[in-house]
Amino acid sequence: MRETLLTIALIFSLANVHAQGEEAKLKISHLIGDFYIYTTYNQYEGNRIPANGMYVITSSGVVMFDTPWDTTQLQPLLDSIKWRHHKSVIMCIATHWHSDRTEGLAYYQQQGISTYTTILTDEFSKRNHKKRAEYLMAKDTIFNVGPYSFEVYYPGPGHTEDNIVVWCDKEKILYGGCLIKGVDAENLGYLGDANLEEYHTTLKNVQRRYSDPRYIIISHSDWNNVHSLEHSIRMAKRLKNRNYR
Q1: What is the Cα–Cα distance from 176 to 163, expressed in whole angstroms?
Q2: Residue 18 resides in a domain
Q3: In-domain check, residue 156
Q4: 2 lies in a domain?
Q5: How many domains does one find in the chain?
Q6: Distances from the Cα of 11 to the Cαs of 7, 28, 58, 226, in angstroms?
Q7: Which of 78, 131, 139, 179 has the CA that lies 20 to 30 A from 120?
Q8: What is the pLDDT of residue 75?
Q9: Strands 89-93 and 61-65: what pairing?
Q10: Cβ contact 220:184 at 8 Å
Q11: 35, 171 Cβ separation under 8 angstroms
Q12: CATH number of the domain that 190 lies in?
């Protein structure tokens, strides 16, 4: 009887993953192979904003990039991954200090998940009273987990002073986080912590280093269009030109 009740509880906890319509709190979409995109939501200036993250299933466990923005979905995401793939999350890398990337770091560390940010991100997280990671990266780092390799690269300041991107070379996946905006974006979004002068150069650094991505995953827009980096570069160039006038 107890097992039945636990099963029912799990089904209800996962129901929001399968819910249809704009009110779903957690959405998981298959990207390619063992790679998945998860989306949670939060309110910003009166609008319901999606926040995309990514995870990959490996033989050693699940690697997650960024954490849910909505704290009510921290455990449901772990439960959903376990239910879908029969594996646990073993590590999480956050790509800059804002809450839509770091909000779950402390909680996931409590669950025994290894959490990572750069030293620069940790400095900004500490200064702004945001959640901090257990392990800090002092330089660009390549992680090898199971059969997969992930390169963490700091291209320079842009959306924030500390923003990093992640490159999966074999699959040609560029995880750009909040640095890169969608092709439907009319501007570069929130610039309160941005480096307006260097944003364009930073994006060009990404483009030069990863010139042939098959997928570009971004935080707050549709990730199905590979031209998002080019569009962001054009917007950053216009921003830089206006800033120098």
Answers
A1: 9
A2: no
A3: yes
A4: no
A5: 1
A6: 6, 16, 25, 35
A7: 78
A8: 98
A9: parallel
A10: no
A11: yes
A12: 3.60.15.10
User: CA 37, CA 242: separation in Å to the nearest integer?
Assistant: 35
Q: Per the structure block, which two tokens stand in for 152?
A: 């963490």
**47-58 vs 165-168, strand pairing mode:** unpaired
Element (H, E) at 243: helix 228-244
Paired sense of beta strands 89-93 and 114-118, if any: parallel
User: Reduced to 3 states, what is the DSSP secondary structure of residue 214?
Assistant: coil
Of 124, 242, 120, 116, the closest CA to residue 193 belongs to 124
Q: What is the pLDDT of residues 183-205, one digit of tens each?
A: 999 999 999 999 999 999 999 99
3-state helix, strand, coil split of the chain in percent (to 5) is 30, 30, 40
Token look-up 């291209």 returns 155
Q: Which residue in this structure is represented by tokens 């939501």?
A: 41
User: pLDDT tens digits for 140-193?
Assistant: 999 999 999 999 999 999 999 999 999 999 999 999 999 999 999 999 999 999
Query: Token pair 């200090």 is at which residue?
Result: 97
Residue type (1 letter), 110: Q
CA distance 172 to 144: 16
Q: Degrees (nearest 5) of the Cα angle 166, 47, 44?
A: 60
